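Forum > Structural Biology > Help requests

Title: Can anyone predict the 3D structure of Flavodoxin-like domain-containing protein?

Hi all, first post here. I have the sequence for Flavodoxin-like domain-containing protein but no way to get a structure on my laptop. I'd be grateful if someone could post the structure tokens.
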Amino acid sequence: MGSLKAASAIAAVVSAKTSPACRNCHPAAEALKSNGASGFVLKRLCYESKRDFRTPGYGVAGDVRAQSGSVNLSSAVLAEPPKLSKIEKWNGSKKLQTQVAPVAPDITTIRSLDWDRDRFDIEFGLSDGTTYNSYIIQGEKLAVIDASHEKFRDLYLSSLKDQIDVSTIDYIIANHTEPDHSGLIPDLLELAPNAKVVGSRVCIQFLQNLVLRPFESISMKGGDTLDLGKGHVLEFVMAPNLHWPDTMFTYDRGTGLLFTCDAFGMHYCSETVYDEDLPSIEPHYRFYYDCLMRPNSKSVLQALKRVGPLDFGVIATGHGPILRYNVPELMSKYEGWSKQALEKQLASIAVLYVSDYGYSDRLSQALARGLTKTNCGVEMMDLNHSDTQELIECVGRNAAVVIMAPPSSGPANEAVTTLFAAVKAAKQPIVIAESYGGDDEPVDTLVQRFVSLGVNSPFPPLRVKEEPTEATYQYYEETGTDLGQYLTQKKAIADKKANLPADIAKAIGRISGGLYVVTAFKGASRGAMIASWVSQASFKPFGVTIAVAKDRAIESLMQVGDSFVLNCLEEGNFAPLMKHFLKRFLPGADRFEGVDWTPATNGSPILNDGIAYLECTVKSRLETPDHWITYAEVTNGNVLKPEKKTAAHHRKIGNYY
Ligand code: FEO
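Reply #1:
Sure, ran it for you. Structure tokens for Flavodoxin-like domain-containing protein below:
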């Protein structure tokens, strides 16, 4: 068994009762005392505050135990400073590093810091990189929970060898098999051939395809346990679809740590191990939820229900900071957002994808994200792991079906045969999309087959000609939004009319604005929209707010940290530009074809027929029921036609723009 050097760094628990500090007073636990000799830093938590913030059903185990005098060091925010590795470069310039930090008695994290990753599947707008968090537990048995991306091979294995004798690993626990967490599991098995791989049934099946040698495994079901000794009894909680059907959570009864892999994570890379700086991480937490978890709102609520009875205080995530200071608050956000998504749902769409095949999973997530922007619910189902009855029921309860092309043979392809019968009976519209897996069943053949059965296919099949880029994900996301609008248009208009009494609607209509075009480039993605709900919002620095409807395609390009240009249209001469940008563009179409523009210093287009422009960077977003109020600082700007005025926009009724 290996010796866990960093674990020895855990210091004593802080007296809860003596600390008057409050998480309301400061976002992080405050440093009370620094032991210069050892480098240990003692920090305090406000237990009064923690009690106030407790959400029924979500335990803060460590804190409670500390108050009662039963020492559980997982509650003590005490550690030697995290250790950073040397920096390596990947693809010539991208910075990679690992960070090792003790998080609880016998438990250490190795965080792979992917500083410059700028795209992660559909969350293509990463502004702050990401991390892949792996954990070591040294009980009497030695376990590693999740590993890392294979690009971290040298750094991760070197950090791991610094901590333990890798050959003595007893268990490799895989909470989820996407390669960012499992990419180095084959390496671990080479180094520790006697280790048993622990995962859900589906996870073990995935890994058997990934690891090209026999290995011992244990398939876990919800409620199963594994005793590592020294009090570390691990309990497994099935959490399918967060983010693949294989996902499970691992709960350590001894320390109250809950290891959740993708769930409750965020793509945010920093040297700060924990969630101390809530304002900085919140936008990333939300964006990640919207992209990865919102399409699986039902599964999120199921998972929350399953972990409700567990007494945990720390969420050991697979991406971004480990959650320690804001656990009830951040968990309750998942609950609130998921409930809200289900309550507002105007229609539900089945998105059938093929896990671990080409880009099926990622592209289907982009499409699902587009659907959720129109208040549509999504039921994601993996064709590799769905039985016939499940599939028939899924088709039956959804308003439309999106089918990601399966490979030309195998279980996913066989499942399509069931689909032909199920969709024929239910007659839902279908959309077929390529998966870019190298062996896709041809999409035209699939469409023809459905059409011949009398099934409507309202959109042409989605095609991918080259390895997906930001533009491809944008194309899939916009198709999702178009499909959602196609399915819900009548209901949405009726809702809009019903929302406001007529006299108020007329009065609201008297609020006037200007006419503008917001333009944004982000990687290969391009967006534009006509805007009239625009206002100056600050003097120093100059700042503006712009209201962006949640189902606007450009919304994805206006996340915190993104930049754009606000173009002012000319009074009496705005019609050509307005007409152009009000057109209904096909998903992924270039909005700027035929438009005269010049790149701004931030890369987005300045419309040469506008009268002035402002280059802006998004600083924060305020959510309203149907819009995002985007506050942006102005970084540059100029007037193109000094003698002209900005066009005004007058309305008669407030139900519409
Ligand atoms: Fe972080 Fe779904 O992998």
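The pocket of MU-OXO-diiron is lined by residues 176, 178, 180-181, 243, 262, 318-319 (CB under 6 Å). Residues 1-78 have pLDDT under 50 and may be disordered.
Shout if anything looks off.
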